[in-house]
Fold this protein.
Amino acid sequence: MLYLVRMDVNLPANLPEDQATAIKEKEKAYSQGLQRDGRWPHLWRVVGQYANYSVFDVESNDELQELLQNLPLFPYMDIEVTALAKHPSSIS
Ligand SMILES: O=C(O)CC1=CCC(=O)O1
């Protein structure tokens, strides 16, 4: 199942720089693991915003929920999920 996910990151202004850096490093490692195993095939920055559009390819809503809530940045994100179905005119 494919899902389009928008993540807006809102780090608190008073979060110490070293803690912010550590969380971002963990986020990068976590996301790259999921990209390598094929469950996070697209990760795109929204130009001009601390936000991304991602596509996840997972088995179920429950699997997506688990992946998202394990994001190191999850406590600091607003997340919007759109489930995708095949378009009848798509040739892919
Ligand atoms: O920077 C972001 O948009 C948040 C994020 C998701 C995966 C990652 O490495 O950073």
About this structure: Strands lie at 2-9, 42-45, 51-57, 77-84.
